[in-house]
Amino acid sequence: MKNFDHYGYKRKQGRWKRWFLGLIALGVIGSLAILLGTFRTSSVASNVEQPLSEAEMVALIPKGRELALAGDCFGCHSRPNGEMGAGGVAIATPFGTVYSTNITPDKTYGIGSYTRADFHRALKDGIGKGKGNLYPAMPFVFTHVTTPADLDALYAYMMSIPAMAVPNAKNSGVFELPVRPFMNFWALLNFPDRKVVEDPERSAAWNRGAYLVEGLAHCGACHSPRNVMMGVEFSKSLQGGFVDNMAIPDITAAALANHGYTLADLTQYLATGVSKEGTSFAGMNTVTHFSTSQMQAQDVKAIATYLLTDRKGKLLSADVLPMPINEVSKLMDKGELAQGRNLYMAACAACHGEDGYGIPHVAPALKGNAIVEMSNPETLIAVVLNGLETTTYSHAERMYAMPGFKDRLNAQEIADLLTWLRAEWGGESVAVSPKSIAVINP
């Protein structure tokens, strides 16, 4: 009996070993299949293999220009004071730095050798000619929804701009390695087959706004959270993200309305970069400067319409004032508020005003400012620590440079200043901790 049990055990052990080795083999085969792109499918229309005629290309250029503006193509693919579309803009990721590429029709460094089908494949499938998988710094998970007709127009326009023989910058970190095939694993988990379907029950403006926001304009690329693989969490679309050490605001309809945005205010903000709720800066100023301030007015209003419409189809519009200081002060130590107020008067009031209304053409208002009202103070902390450069807007508007205070005030002083500022004009009753200052400014 002992021998029988012993041999029975051995036989069972052998079967488990074979099962285990079989699972490993299946895993290896499956991984190789993914690595080779076996499970990648293409959404490119079959008829795009046929080239567009010269006359068709010329006719599509004006429409393509508008689409390029909506996509902010040159905001990401043009260095400050650099050649338009020649690339070289650094995009930081936790895994290294990716540099935007040359998208001019130069045949050596740009996309001049791209056929119509190559262009569609890049924007629909995230696969570049001669490169293979594109890195998701290029927002193909959003441009994927663009119609073939619009991609044709965009292609015609991009092929019409001046060719720039500017070499592409070398990426750093993991992107220096031959990792493009491994993007097939990323795509399998983070590249859904998204579609923007027109809703006949909604207005033409809403439908147009939905198509732009969820597609070419790729608002969710910055304004949505990302997972550990840096994939967009589409289930939390537009609920706020984190880019360049700044918390990016929630721009869902309810959040925008709670910050006081009306349709007119949001349209003005996108068209000019300036509204009573604040001014665009950092990455958002790139958007308003290169993109929305130059787009057709009806498209800008369409984007604002879509963003301010809730899921039930109601266009939200509210002027929600922050909690008055006398109510907030009940929730915090009055001495802490007094210290913060004294710091504000000494360091900030000369430009932003004692009443927080700012100075036109010099400094934005802080009272009712959407960034001041954010529950997450990290963006405000980063601005106070590092300051801002002089920023120009459309219609000859500008805001002067703001100095950084990381070498002028200590962590406790900055925390006291921001605690008072957010309480006074942002309605935020939670004190800013000196530890949160130290995290951003170690």
- Helical content class: 40-55%
- Using only C-alpha atoms, the radius of gyration works out to 26 Å
Distance between the termini: 70 Å
Count of β-strands:
10
Compute the number of structural domains: 3
What's the story with the biggest beta sheet? Answer: 2 strands, antiparallel
| Low-pLDDT ranges | none
Describe this structure as you would to a colleague.
The protein has a two-stranded antiparallel ribbon. The protein is globular, with a radius of gyration of 26 Å. Helix content is 44%, strand content 6%. It has helices spanning 2-35, 54-70, 73-77, 116-125, 140-143, 148-158, 183-190, 204-213, 220-223, 253-258, 263-272, 282-292, 297-307, 325-328, 334-347, 349-352, 378-386, 411-426, 434-440, and strands at 90-93, 96-99, 127-128, 132-133, 241-243, 246-248, 274-275, 278-279, 391-392, 398-399. It folds into three domains: 46-181; 204-307, Cytochrome Bc1 Complex, Chain D, domain 2, CATH 1.10.760; 325-440, Orthogonal Bundle (Cytochrome Bc1 Complex, Chain D, domain 2), CATH 1.10.760.10. α8 (204-213) crosses α13, α11 packs across α12 and α18 crosses α19. A hairpin with a 2-residue loop joins β7 (274-275) and β8.
Quick rundown:
With 442 residues, the chain is mostly helical. It contains 19 helices and 10 strands.
